[in-house]
């Protein structure tokens, strides 16, 4: 086997994952939140947290455990057993904006004149700096550097003048702009809200007499909850002792769901807005085989997100699909470690190439994206060192040309290789025999023709005006 010494150092970072549950029968829910977060661990491995409350106990008493690290590192039987309550919210995080530190862990718990709020947020606000400055000049004192606290402050302020917390969430949504899937826990209610464009996913589930909100359906599966439906873009869902009620008054005509959720971020066993993520990736591979065919002996996917697209390429082309990479499952996703020095130490044990599979073969190597190009170049080199005679690189997304401001850490254009080089130049830099990207005009086929998606990182067509100041990534390079 040939060792790939540095794997994924320039890959994209996830955003975050949110999970909430309310057991209307009054049962403890902390362990369910724990397993739900475990299923969402791929969305963020930097920090995590759980906050719970007892709806029949003292109003506004919230217990929480938060910390830096993986779910199984932060939580253990002792601290989980102390989290007593029938309503709760959880969060896993990668810092797309705001420093990587314990103060920025979520859920955020706010004590204010009307009681207590706990909030978990996935996404990035585009007007967070302006809203933060406005709040600061009216006396607000911030404890974190994340835009989620801006949302929490606005919800708390609006609650002073509204009849209920869901109305406060609605009023706050009228002020904030950008991407947000929210779960808000008040003393007696669990509220889910999705921005009007629906950038980030949010689903509703049910288990016995418990209602669940989660970033992805795979988290519902983890706790044996039944999928009910997606929270629609612009919808506010309120779960209380009276059941579920919905407010869709903030909906707009056209959504802009993140297409990269289907290509890479979401787990392949999840469904987003009724579409199978696995099927989306199979389709991406089939399109690549149609638009960029080649003569080869074997198709390999770069684990894990390239595997399904590689299978699609093999199905369409008739070239056999093979397992040419062995991944060490006990190493975290090295590219979402917060510091480069940590990445460098971890990537060396991430992946191996099976010489027996690639030696003397013409190889098609399928991956989900190329950001800066350094990772892909190393993988191509390792395949050749292992004996591959040709390496045809196929990428199941279009070239990244523009940054993302909506919760995905696509860096500024000057750091994107496709912004600086032509495809032929990138191919030469990678040392590949050929290079083909997914055609941007065929993205709609990945989600069964639905045209309500955001592809701004490929086209520059932002559905929301980009922020005046870019606060992304300065802590995460």
From TrEMBL:
Signal peptide: none annotated. The active site is at residue 16. CDD domains: GPATase_N, PRTases_typeI. Residues 16-242 form the Glutamine amidotransferase type-2 domain. Its EC number is 2.4.2.14. Its cofactor is Mg(2+); [4Fe-4S] cluster. GO terms for molecular function: 4 iron, 4 sulfur cluster binding; amidophosphoribosyltransferase activity; magnesium ion binding. This is Amidophosphoribosyltransferase. It comes from [Clostridium] polysaccharolyticum. The gene is purF.
């Amino acid at each position: 086997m040939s060792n790939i010494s540095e794997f994924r150092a320039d890959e994209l970072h996830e955003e975050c994952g949110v999970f909430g549950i309310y057991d209307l029968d009054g049962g403890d829910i902390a362990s369910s939140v724990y397993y739900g977060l475990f299923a969402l661990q791929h969305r963020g491995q930097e920090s995590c947290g759980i906050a719970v409350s007892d709806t029949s106990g003292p109003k506004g008493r919230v217990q929480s455990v938060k910390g830096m690290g993986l779910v199984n590192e932060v939580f253990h039987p002792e601290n989980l057993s102390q989290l007593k309550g029938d309503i709760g919210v959880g969060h896993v995080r990668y810092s797309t904006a705001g420093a990587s530190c314990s103060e920025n862990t979520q859920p955020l718990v706010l004590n204010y004149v009307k009681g207590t709020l706990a909030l978990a947020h996935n996404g990035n606000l585009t007007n967070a700096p302006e809203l933060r400055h406005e709040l600061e000049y009216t006396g607000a004192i911030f404890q974190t550097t994340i835009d989620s606290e801006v949302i929490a402050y606005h919800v708390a302020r609006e609650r002073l003048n509204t009849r209920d917390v869901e109305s406060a969430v609605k009023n706050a949504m009228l002020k904030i702009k950008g991407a947000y899937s929210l779960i808000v826990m008040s003393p007696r209610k669990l509220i889910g809200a999705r921005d009007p464009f629906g950038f980030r996913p949010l689903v509703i589930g049910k288990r016995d007499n418990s209602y669940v909100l989660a970033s992805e359906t795979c988290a519902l599966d983890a706790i044996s909850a039944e999928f009910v439906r997606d929270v629609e873009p612009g919808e506010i869902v309120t779960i209380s002792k009276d059941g579920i009620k919905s407010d869709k008054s903030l909906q707009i005509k056209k959504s802009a769901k993140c297409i990269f959720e289907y290509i890479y971020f979401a787990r392949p066993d999840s469904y987003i807005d009724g579409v199978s993520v696995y099927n989306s990736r199979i389709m991406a591979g089939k399109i690549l085989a149609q638009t960029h065919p080649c003569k080869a002996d074997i198709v390999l996917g770069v684990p894990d997100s390239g595997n399904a697209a590689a299978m699609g390429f093999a199905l369409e082309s008739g070239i056999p699909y093979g397992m040419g990479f062995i991944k060490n499952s006990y190493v975290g996703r090295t590219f979402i470690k917060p510091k480069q020095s940590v990445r460098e130490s971890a990537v060396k044990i991430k992946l191996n190439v099976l010489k027996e599979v690639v030696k003397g073969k013409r190889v098609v190597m399928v991956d989900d994206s190329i950001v800066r190009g350094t990772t892909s170049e190393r993988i191509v080199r390792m395949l050749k060192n292992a004996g591959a005679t040709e390496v045809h690189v196929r990428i199941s997304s279009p070239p990244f040309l523009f940054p993302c401001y909506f919760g995905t850490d696509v860096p500024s254009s000057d750091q994107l290789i496709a912004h600086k080089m032509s495809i032929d130049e990138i191919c030469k830099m990678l040392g590949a025999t050929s290079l083909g990207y997914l055609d941007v005009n065929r993205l709609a086929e990945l989600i069964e023709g639905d045209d309500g998606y955001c592809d701004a990182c490929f086209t520059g067509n932002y559905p929301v005006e980009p922020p005046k100041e870019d606060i992304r990534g300065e802590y995460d390079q």
